[in-house]
Amino acid sequence: MATVRPFAALRPRPDLARRICELPYDVMSSAEARAIAAGNPFSFLHVSKPEIDLPPGVEIYSPEVYAKGKENFQKLIAGQSLRPDAQPCFYLYRQIMGQHGQVGLVAVASCREYLEGGIKKHELTRPDKEDDRVRHVETLNSQTGPAFLTYRAVPALDRLLAKQTVEEPDVDFTASDNVRHTAWTIADPATILSVEQEFARIPALYIADGHHRSAAAARVCLKRKQLNTGQSGRTSNEVARASVYEPGELAAAASPSPVGEGRHEGGPALQTSPAHFEMSGSVSPDSSSYFLAVIFPHNQVQILPYNRVLKDLNGLTPARSLEKLDALFIVTQNGSAQPSRKHEIGLYLDARWHTLHFRPQFAAANDPVEKLDVTLLQKYVLDPIFGIDDPRTSKRINFVGGIRGTAELERLVNSGENACAFSMFPTSIEDLMNVADAGGIMPPKSTWFEPKLRDGMFCHLLT
Question: b vs e for 381-398, b when ≥16 Cβ sit within 10 Å of the residue's Cβ?
């Protein structure tokens, strides 16, 4: 089952939302963030990338950076640019990018289910990135950017949520990149209960984007449970099983109870059982047991390709490179820049595009990871031909998000700074879920999700 809960969000004042909400902290450099936020004191980049308000060159993981983020966050709250809702709610978040639209449920998801595998992962995290998000959450005592989750679409649930979007939205703005962002509130207790019940029938949720945010939230949860229950000598998994508290369902026709009567600040009315309290060491539920998420049905998610650019040809000439590739691919000269199907790749080399289609024997794997185009490219091309054995650490390869288009690949190669570029066919969301179901790990830079969720649109304050 998938546990989702309503929460009292901290949200931007509607007339300031366009100036506050920003792209995620991890899709831009500090210099880019400084330029974007220049002249805009409301920009959430002052919170998510607070080094922009300190001298250039400051160590971005230093304590003063997190302290500045907290100071800026509190300023936005004190000035009522960000305002907390009075009661726990669900929210809907719609994004429109060109012809593509997607509507997700904004909720908090269970750290326990993340730790126990009910919320499935498909990529590795880096300890330094996790540590950064842990420090940010702990310093601000808030989750300020959501994880992007998905689930296999359920028509009844999707219809239930779609009904809510006919109402007047709370927030509606178009950002500078022409992506439109719209939000609605679901406050009716009966509808909240229906949403919870529909999600409870869903076998699993999947992390589409936001592995570091999710992992950091789980670490903060475990740390607080250990401190609260005196279990600091126990392993993280033991503490997760023993003390991550899960509340009961909203009463079918209940209105929220007063604080102290089966309810905690920022949470729904609860039906608790003695078993829950015994399991949790008599610890009251707290908001750190959950993490902020926007949850989309899989058939609304848009994945763009994540392309590759190589600095050199590993000592080969363009002609010799093509000879080696001919053993792996059916090669079409003067091909298309954009692949049209799975197992097809575009190669920009020697000032022209070639279409490469894997010969059947190389794409016949059954394993969900092994049959991904990004895996096949690494296994048969990048490592044995071009000598890039570890794309995570190699300085000879760069990755370019599909949002930049194939013209950017041509520019990078024509500049003389790179030798060739590979244009990929997008990994499908079905492939991603199949990998996660099998417990597999996708190669680095396999997916690029668009549009990006905006930081500052919803914040989850911890208690």
Answer: bbeebbebeebeebebbb
Residue 269: partners with Cβ closer than 8 Å, 6 or more residues away: 189, 250, 251, 254, 255, 256, 257, 262, 263
Which pair of tokens denotes residue 422?
């590979």
Contact 142, 322 (CB under 8 A): no
Residue ranges matching CATH 3.30.1760 in the chain: 306-425
From the list 66, 193, 198, 197, the residue with the least C-alpha distance to 137 is 66
Options 2.60.90, 1.10.3470, 1.20.1260, 3.30.1760; CATH of 306-425:
3.30.1760
Question: What single DSSP character describes residue 89?
Answer: B
| Rounded CA Rg of the chain | 24
CA contacts within 13 A on the Cβ side of 311: 8
What tokens appear for 327 in the block?
Answer: 């053993």
Task: Express each pLDDT in 70-82 by its tens digit.
Answer: 999 999 999 999 9
What is the pLDDT, as a whole number, of residue 299?
97
Number of residues written out for the chain: 463
User: Does the structure show a pLDDT above 90 at 172?
Assistant: yes
